[in-house]
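> Could you send the Proteasome subunit alpha prediction when you get a chance?

Sure thing. Input:
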Amino acid sequence: MSTPFYVSPQQAMADRAEYARKGIARGRSLVVLQFADGIVFVGENPSRALHKFSEIYDRIGFAAAGKYNEYENLRIGGVRYADLRGYTYDRDDVTARGLANVYAQTLGTIFSSAAEKPYEVELVVAEVGETPEGDQIYRLPHDGSIVDEHGSVAVGGNAEQISSYLDQRHREGMTLAEALKLAVQALSRDTNGSEREIPAERLEVAVLDRTRPQKRKFRRISGGQLSRLLDAGAAGGDEEGTSEDAE
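Output:
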């Protein structure tokens, strides 16, 4: 009878973490930035149907990098949690922190389970407040830990380099056009330091806009409005246009 091959718990966890990180690194990066009127989500995504960014609840948005089918399951679970909690208690009881805790428990349980592979995903849950001081951004890596972020955050394949670039250049009170320009510049930088051009049709952009009169603050930006914002950012202007695609 052969002796089972022994792997220490520490080595097993390290191997699972490396497996998840490699899966996430194969996906395109995305960034989430605070600006004067809310929070903007920007990512390179050639698909018009498979979204990286989605609305979870009134003031809460969701962003994910990694395997689409895995983070889509998490997104659907988050929507169900938010709807149930808002219906059972009050809409104000649905918070990004509560949702982040739910996601952390799910990811942590899957990561530590020997019966299934870890999820190859990294999430961002953001909530826009009445003022910039009330904004909340939480990053959730594959192992279920929660990182409270401020100002800007990047996840995905080239996240460390992009985060460093954003940390040096992001500032409070930026307009939407300025924040979008900075996000695109960060995403355009390759690992070797060179820059490439990302056309507007390959960008997915959404915002949590605190100035919207509706309860639901999430809206997508695409088409002519996105082109105008990119042009305004390049020119250093402050043109924000009107919403063409709201959810």
